[in-house]
Batch of 2 targets.
Target 1
Amino acid sequence: MKMRFVLAAFFVAGAMSLAMASSAGTGGSKDAPKDTAAAAAAPAGQADNLAAQKENMHLEGERRFRSNCARCHAAPPKFPPRMMATIVRHMRVRAAITDQDMRLILRYMTE
Amino acid sequence: MMCRFVCWPRIVAKAGLLGLFFVFSLAGQAQDDGFKAVPILTGSTAYFTRVTAGQYQDAPSVSPLLLLPLGDKWLIEAKGSYSDTFTKNAQGDYNGTISYGMTYGQIDYIANRYMTLVAGRFTTPFNIYGERLAPNWVRALQTSPLTSPVTSGSALGGMVRGGFPTTDSLNLTYALYFSSNNTHHLLATDRSTGGRIGFFLPHQRLEIGASFQQVLQADRPHSSGIFFEWQSDHAPVTVRSEYARSSGTKGSGYWIESVYRLSQISALRRLELVGRGEQFFVASNLSAATIKKLGALGKDTNEADFGMNYYLRSDVRASASYGRQFVLGKNANLWTIGMTYRFVMPMLPQGGAR
């Protein structure tokens, strides 16, 4: 019985501390893709900058794909976006891929 | 005085409810990937011929996986397995043995960007082989490592897991679980708890980590393990390894595997070469009856395997391997040859629509 209580307390403490860590980390929203905000702020004449930024996002997505996915299996073909969203969500859970990596990989795999 | 001991389970329960409420209140920060995910059926089929110490086996198998997303935060995963193993007997006839089961059936809730809650039957998060490398279309060699009985298994209960960047150059991954006892003949699980922690350096493409498991029934054995996986940025080579040790009857051992994709040679770019070496050390306190029951795992064993995989397409792979198993008084050759096919299909006709 004592072991059960210790384990329950262990899980509760873990969940609480992780939840607090997450709420503390959301203020800066550093994990959000930066191109959306940049696109809103950019004047219409800065199309070149947007194109360069898009290219950077593509390269970053490819890098995240190679470091996360290609470690274990060969690159799959690019599926339709809605299927890819399901696959990436599955792999996020299975391979503990970070939220930021998941978004960049999904973007890369659906371009 | 008594109340301090009697009441504190209630306090823990209340704290647990409060913690869960806190976690769920952060759900607004969960996944929003911009695409409405659709249910899909994926998985793999395989046909392999194995020759183990002169014993022929043919084994067709299928492992379907249903992925059912609900909204932006939920995912139901159900994976089954079915195989029919035909073994050649002394008269030259083949006898078939059917085996089937549910690998996992779980519901995932992405609570926030750092945490996913899992409930149901799931693969035990111990090292990396069981969770990531076991599917036959993923594994580089079709023969399982000798430490598989230590590192692989299923659990029935709940799990907290996730991964998040601590700095630009380090991601932390974690998993904590609790499993209840289940005696169903197809879905048997032990009452146990444990977890895994991993440190992933994305720039170096290096992950190292450790695992722990404590069984909370019978002899209450515990297991511990460490692992690493590294992929070169300059050459298409991957090196991975696991070490696992059990305090019970499962012994201890390690394996190290290297995979080299010949993508730098255009004519051979679809070919992958694999090598693996491993050692297994049987538990020292086993009785003669237990050793007999454990069979191949009842003796210290060394094994070396070499193989190749040829990707006809990204989802169709032909594989062959040769291994030599060194066991006191009973060395053996291990041959495998066969094919795997990984399938993915939407469960709705509008699966391809945005």
Note: The first helix of chain A runs from residue 2 to 25.
Target 2
Amino acid sequence: MTTNVDGQVRDRETPPGLQRYPGWWVVAAQESRDLWVGGRGLVLVLAVSVLLSVVTYLAATNRVLNFLEQREAVNLVLQVAVAVGVLLTLVVGADGISGERERGTLESLLLTPVPRRAIGLGKAAAALSLWFAVFLVSMPYVWVLGRAISLVTTALLVGLFVGTVLAAALAAIGLVISGVSTSNKASLSVSLFLLLALFAPTQLPGGPPKGWFGDALVWVNPVGSALHYIGGVVVNGYGWTHELPYLAAPLLAFVLAGGVLLLAGPRIVRLTGGVNGE
Amino acid sequence: MRPQVLLAGIVLALSVPAVPTAAAAAAPVEVTFDRVDQANVLGDQFTLQARITNHGTTTTDPLIASLNVTSMTTDVYVDPEDWSGSRTHELPPLTPGADTTLSFELQAVNAGRFSVYLVVLPNGASSGGTGSPAVSPPVRVTVAGRRTLSAGGAFPVVVAVPVLLGVALAVARIRLRRAG
């Protein structure tokens, strides 16, 4: 996080003002500083904004857009923002422990008087800051597409709530994978494969019923059910409670992954990777 | 046989069907809407009330009512399911003189000229799929277009957000470089 393996401090001493905060908060602040002041976060958010600009421009210039499809345009931009936001959160989480190991900066972090559980929590919070930044960037795009149909507030609220749950779950999953992986390359590969596997079912053609297996696939998939829930509220105009069961999978993923990160934190935040530490 | 008797026999034979058909057996059902015209702007929601009345002397079979939307021009594709999420209703048998009212929530999702009409079919054990339908007079629906999305409206946001972020990134990089 802050220092090299030989203890050389770059520019990241804990500011005096942070010393009275809990350990996870200090770690989160330092990690966020690394992410945003170093420029990596801004570059990623800039790339997201270019992507959202392209999607929004295509949606706005589509000659066959009508009223219903305008709701779908808002949904499209919101879902792209959520998808890319949670992808970045997962990638940052997947780099959180194994990346520090390979860069040789984890040892000095472990020497700090912060519990290892708090290190995992702080890293998850820092990864989550990337999702919030992506969401902030997506706000003007949702506004420009949804203002004429009074959909902006609803779309932004449902996107913020569902996206935050999903991003927190995936950040925790990424950190757990990063902790048990023997290399950073393995951690990133497994995380990206997992994300693709979760996103693939969402690309199945919609419309007709897919049978019990197709429905079950949507229900158990935290990404698929979260995007389905967002689509229901934004496109179909459902109330927040109409498809509430679809939030079960993202919430369960958040609770389980967060629980594993907290419980297994002391065992996975360590210098050696792998399940047995070999 | 005298011609008058022959003519009377033919008239009598034509006036009494040999085998009663399902259409003849079905009670006369009338279907009407609460209006004949409806003007909207694209995206508007509106409600149509339909009244189904049994003018016959016998109780009808159970009925099924289905709403349909048809474009009056061939250049507009209409998917009635987009217009209303609940177009089909099952109705209990109507006693002679009884009526019932159905309410249909619609949303104008296409611009153009359309006819909305309701078809009521007998849906009894024997009459289901064979009875004659009763059709309402159509409601003429005119939907004016409304283009709410435009490249011009989106362009400032599409350009401004990446430019502002790019400037922020450049400033951050310059400050970082100056700081050493």
Note: The two ends of chain B are 126 Å apart (CA to CA).
